[in-house]
Amino acid sequence: MLPIRFHLVPCKSFLEILIRKYFTINDIINGFFIALLLSNTIFLTLFDNIFLNFISPFLAIYGFYKLFEFNKIKFFYTGFFVGILWFYWVSFSLIYYNLSFLIPLEILIFGIVYGLIFLICGAFKNKLIRAILLLSISYFYPFNFNWLNLELTLLSGIFEPSLRGLGSVFCFILFFYYLKKYKYLASIFLLFALQIEEKEPNFLPFKTDITNTQISQFIKWDPAYKDLHINEALKMIDDSIKNGYKFVILPENAFVVYLNLEDELIDVLKEKSNKITILTGALTYEKDFQYNSSYLFKDGAISRFDKFELVPFGEEIPLPKFLTNIINDIFFDGAMDFKKAKSYSEYEVDTILIRNAICYEATRAKTYEGSPKFIVAISNNGWFTPSTEPNLQRMLIKYYSTKHGTTIYHSANGSKSEVITPKRLWIKEFLGFIKI
C-alpha cells in the first residue's frame, strides 16, 4: 500500500490566488470606466450644455454595451462604483451628527450593496436575462430607497427616459451582439427608443413666488439663529406681497420650529395670508410624535399636510423596532422616528388643485399617482451640499414630470428653486438654442 501524502497550500498562496482572481487592477479599472459612463448624465447635466446633453445618452449606451460582455466580477465592480458615484453624498449628513469618521464606511457600504445587486445581474451569462435584470433594478427598492433609476441615463438628448426607451436600447445592444454580419439592422431598435411626443407643461394661472434660501445646515438647527431665520422668512413673505404675488412657496423647514406650538407666529402668518397664500415647511409635535409638515395659510385659515414618504435612515429606520431603538440611541442621541401620513395630500389655491410633496416625496412614484397637473415640492438640500445630490433629485423629479405630464414648483434650501416641466423634444431644444 502506497503512503498517502497531504499537500498543504500555504495561506499566502491562497490569498494570492484570491487576490489575483477577484481583485485585479484590470477588472477594477474596467468597472470604474463603465460606471463612469453609466453615471455621466448626473455630472454632464450640471453644465446645462446642449452638446453634452446630446452625447450623454450615447455614452451610457456604449457603457451598457460593454457591460453586457463583462464577467460577473466586472459586473460587481461596475455596480460598486455606480453605487459610489450616485450616492457618495448620502454620507455627508453624518457631519451634522458628529459622525464624520463614518463617512468612508457609509460610502463603502453603498458601493458593496449596489455591487452585489449588479453581481446578481452578471451571474447569468445569458445576455437577455442580464438585460431583464438590469431593467428591473429601477423598480427594486432596498429599505424603501432607490434613486438608482437607470432610465435616467436617457433623460438628456433624443431618447425617451422610460421603460420603453431603455428596453429598446437593450434590444439594440442584444441584436448588435447576435446578428453578427447584419449588426447595422440592430439600429432599428434605437428608433423605438426615440422620444416621439412631448407633454405640454401646465403653469399656475396666478403669480407665484418660489423662494430660495442658502442657509448652512451647521446653523439651521441652532436655537441661537431661530429668531433670525423666522424674521428672514417673514421678510420673504412681505417682499412677495409687495411684488404682487398671489402665492408664495417657502422651502422645507423654512421655520425651524414646531409650528403648531408657536401661537404668535401662527397668528402673524394668518394675518399675512389675507394678502397672499403661503405654503411653508415646518415641524409638527403632536401627541408625543413629530412630523415633517407643510403648512398652508390662506384667507386667515391654516391647514397642515404631513409627509407620507419618509427618508430611510434619515427620518425613519426601516428595520424591526428593537433595532430601530438601538440605532436611534447610538447614532441619533435617542431621537425618535418621524410619524407619517397615510397618503399624499392635496389642497386648492384659487380653485386649482395642487398636490403636496416634501423633498423625498417628489422623487417617489406614489406621489405622481393619477398624474396630477401640479405639485408643489419643498426641500432642504443643505444636508448634502455641495454635492451632486440636488442635481440627481432634480433629474428624478423631471423623470416623473415627463412620465406624468406634471409641472413641479420646487422651493429649496441649499440648491436652486425652480419650475420643473416635462422633457422637451430634443429638436425643439436645439431650435431654441439656435435662436438664442
Structure report:
By secondary structure, the chain is an alpha/beta fold. It has two domains: 11-193, no CATH class; 208-308 and 343-435, Carbon-nitrogen hydrolase (Nitrilase/N-carbamoyl-D-aminoacid amidohydrolase), CATH 3.60.110.10. The chain has 15 helices and eleven strands. It has helices spanning 11-22, 25-38, 40-44, 50-68, 72-87, 103-122, 127-137, 163-178, 188-193, 217-220, 226-242, 263-272, 321-331, 389-404, 426-435, and strands at 208-210, 247-249, 255-258, 277-286, 289-298, 301-306, 346-349, 352-358, 374-380, 407-413, 418-420. The strands form two sheets. Strands 1, 2, 3, 4, 5 and 6 form a six-stranded mixed β-sheet that branches. A five-stranded mixed β-sheet has the order 7-8-9-10-11. Helix 5 (72-87) runs antiparallel to helix 6 (103-122) and helix 6 packs antiparallel against helix 7 (127-137). The longest helix has 20 residues, at 103-122. It is globular and about 75 Å long. It comes from Campylobacter blaseri. It is a multi-pass membrane protein. GO terms for molecular function: N-acyltransferase activity.
Total E-strand runs: 11
Q: How can the largest sheet be summarized?
A: 6 strands, mixed
Q: What would you say the CATH architecture of the largest domain is?
A: 4-Layer Sandwich
Specify the CATH homologous superfamily of the largest domain.
Carbon-nitrogen hydrolase
Structural class determined from secondary elements: alpha/beta
Q: State the end-to-end distance.
A: 92 Å
Instruction: Give the low-pLDDT segments.
Output: none
Helix and strand element order: HHHHHHHHHEHHEEHEEEHEEEHEEH
Helix content: 40-55%
- The CATH topology of the largest domain, please? Nitrilase/N-carbamoyl-D-aminoacid amidohydrolase
- What percent of residues are in strands? 5-15%
Q: What is the CATH class designation of the largest domain? A: Alpha Beta
Radius of gyration: 25 Å
> How many DSSP helices?
15
Subcellular location: Cell membrane
Main location: membrane
Protein name: Apolipoprotein N-acyltransferase
GO cellular component, one term: plasma membrane
